Amino acid sequence: MELRAISVDDPAAAPRVGPSTRSSRYPWIVFALTFGLLLSDYMSRQVLSAIFPFLKTEWALSDSQLASLSSIVALMVGLLTLPLSLLADRWGRVKSLVLMAVLWSAATLLCAVAGSYEQMLGARFLVGVGEAAYTSVGIAVVLSVFAPRLHATLSGAFMAGGSFGSVIGVALGGVIAVHVSWRWSFAAMAIFGLILVALYRALITERKLAQHAADDLPAVTAAATQAGYRAPVSTLFTNPAVLCAYIGGGLHLFTAGVLLSWLPSFFNRYYDLAPAEAGAMAAVFVLLVGSGMVICGIITDRVGRTDTSRKWTAAIAFCLISLVFLTVGFSVGTGTAQMVLIAIGAFFSGGASGPSAAMVANLTHSSVRASAMGTLAVAYNLLGMALGPFTVGVLADHLGLLRALQLSPLVYLGAIAALIAGKRLYPAGMRKLAALSTDTPHP
């Protein structure tokens, strides 16, 4: 059994208070501020997409170099999410979140003063380090103060926050770049992040989180938590069904990542829109991606209400719809029909995020769930958000951006295959988890 030290910042060490003394508003304050920092995270990450045309002209960069500035962030997130999530569970989640936000905001300021491609790449590297584990640790903080019956809705909304932050970053960044300069686009995102950090540090503490922790946990999980039991980290990788959820969830975001990074350039090059107008147009489509995550999550909860295995089917359906509409959309000529087809495909492009997260949560022990979400985030970034934009950038240098975008939806075939396998393995995976809970040691 794995033991951990208890400090004054450890939620387990703080006194629990009864439901009558818990504020019903505090959990929503936690959600609002944590969600706000998530917006800052993605605003700082995706503002670069609106700046692509300026950097390409000013520094004479290739599409591959532009793609590397975007993918380096997702790459670092993918590599560091799991180890930093494990560290945050032990060191203190609130302190970890504050440190992360300070780092990515400061690094975004460095982007504003970068004088070359190499300096910008270094600053973006630091942005990635700061943002690495924010989503997994942030959602763990949010879920800790809400009853499980709200977890699916909150998870879907939290994941969609990445798209909403991207919308704000791309749209606002493009406007600032045109009217002031691209350097102020980065500076504005950094200032917003630092203001939110100050508010978060003032209002959110480990002790308050513990006092407002939801206490309607299953009996077995509650007993295990009180005993200080933590399931082995190896259980994150020894259940075949959860591995399929990681892979399917990661691959399905390949094309969504492409849309987030390359739609501004697509509209700039093929619709002859100015950078600010292209950024605003792309922001509409990115908003569709985020809205689709929320609505597809709601649909998934409804169809899976009586049979949770149907959530796998919903994820497969969302991937298939996006595959068809985006493939056809990028193949037809420019115009209204293309816009409509791409819009439908974009709406469903991230639709499997909610189902895949729900499956990971269902298939992992509660004591390592934050780390499980961190592992899913690794898959999201390494297989999707990092690999997608970079691959399309490389293909664009050889085949042209349009041809690269036409090929990108084919990755959904791999996601669909993984999700189909996961659905078949799901019953056995649930039995394996039940056996682990039964074997949980008690004091």
Q: What's the gyration radius in Å?
A: 21 Å
Overall strand count? 0
Oligomeric state of this protein: single chain
Largest sheet: none
**Could you tell me the mean pLDDT?**
83
Category by helix and strand content: mainly alpha
Question: So what's the overall shape?
Answer: globular
Between the first and last Cα atoms, what is the distance in angstroms? 12 Å
Low-confidence parts lasting 5 or more residues at pLDDT below 50? 1-20, 215-227
User: Beta-sheet strand percentage?
Assistant: under 5%
What fraction, in percent, of the residue positions are helical?
over 70%
In DSSP terms (H or I, runs of 4 or more residues), the helix count works out at: 18
Strand-and-helix sequence, N→C? HHHHHHHHHHHHHHHHHH
Question: Your description of this structure?
Answer:
The chain starts with 25 loop residues before the first helix and ends in a 5-residue tail after the last helix. α3 runs antiparallel to α5 and α10 runs antiparallel to α14. The chain contains 18 helices and no strands. The longest helix is centred in the first third of the chain and has 34 residues, at 26-59. The protein has 443 residues and is an all-alpha fold.
Task: Give a summary of the structure in a few sentences.
The chain has 443 residues and is an all-alpha fold.
Which features does this protein show?
mainly alpha, disordered N terminus, 18 helices, 443 residues, globular
